Amino acid sequence: MRLRGIRHSLCFMGVVLMMMFVIAGCAASEPSWTTFVGSAVEKSFPIPKEAKRTETAMNNSKMDYVHYSLPGLKESDGVPDAFQKAITEWGWTENPEESTGTTLVYKKDKLVVQLTIHDNSFTVLVPKMEEKAIIQGLESP
To answer: Over pLDDT 70: what percentage of the chain?
Structure first.
């Protein structure tokens, strides 16, 4: 009789454990694409709220970038429609002449952002514009 109770308890614990794995797997499969926040390198450029920052390079003399993890993103699919819509709604326009492959270049006023899509992640890169000082010479009489 006691052995039968132990078997039932083990069976119940096994079912609960399997349910936890199923729930955890389903919860992390696809981003919702409903809420966007400003990127860590350019606050006016939207990124999905579910994206997790994994790597950042700030204060580089040529660029600033941040790499985000986002399960469910596919390099072969490009920028998801909802993401593209948010980028446009936030005032950014794509510059197709400068975009190549999975890297898209967006402009807003004088700002430039490069978005590169990878499998399960993406990178937002902001190149630094070279500021050339204008030297005014003295005019001769």
So the answer is: 67
